[in-house]
Each structure stands twice: as C-alpha cells, then as structure tokens.
Amino acid sequence: MEQQRPELPHNRGELDIITRYRRWEYFGSLTFAGVVPNPRQAVRLVFAHLYRSARALQVPFHRLVWVLRAEHGEIGGRAHYHLLLSTGGHSSPTIGK
C-alpha cells in the first residue's frame, strides 16, 4: 500500500520549485543589523545581494536560479529571508577564496 503525503494548506508552489530543482548550490539566511527596513527596501537590498553574488560567482544575473522566502523569527519576530541559489552549473570554482 502506497503511503500518501499530506497536502500542505499553503506554499505548495514553493515546495514544488524547491523539490523539483535539484541543483541548489548555496543556502543563505539574510538578516538585517539594527532597524529592519520596510518590506520594499528589504527586497531592494536582497536584489542588491543577488547582483553582487552573480558578480562574485562570475555568472550573468539572468542565469541565477533562486528561491527567496520571507519569515519572522520565532524569538523576537525579526524579519529575515532564506535563500536557495544556483548558477545552473555556470559558477566559478574560486568563490570564497
């Protein structure tokens, strides 16, 4: 008898993307020091980070594959983001050196 997975009430699209794309290379938690910016400014900062990451990885920005999720911390409720990132196999092996 095949066991059925429970249906999730929301975020099903995120789960599908995360599980179907199996080439994730980087995971990150993006947090803010001091005052947390408003959501619009926070997204601008995240995109700035993605552009810097593409440059550091020597990959054109449009080649990046990424998933971003906004959350509030369990303790204190501070806004932050989690990021999965892939270069689609186009990354430079020198990242982080």
Describe the structure.
The protein is α+β, with helices and mostly antiparallel strands. A hairpin with a 6-residue loop joins strand 2 and strand 3. It contains 2 helices and 3 strands, in the order H-E-H-E-E. It has a 3-stranded antiparallel beta sheet, with helices on one face. It starts with 11 loop residues before the first helix and ends in an 11-residue tail after the last strand.
What's the short version?
The chain is of the alpha+beta class.
- Element-by-element helix/strand order: HEHEE
Question: Biggest sheet: strands, sense, closure?
Answer: 3 strands, antiparallel
Please estimate the helix content: 25-40%
Uncertain regions spanning at least 5 consecutive residues: 5-9
Figure out the total of helices.
2
List strands and helices in order, with pairings.
Blueprint: H1 12-20, E1 26-30, H2 39-57, E2 65-72, E3 79-86
Antiparallel strand pairs: 1-3, 2-3
Question: What labels describe this entry?
Answer:
alpha+beta, 2 helices, 97 residues
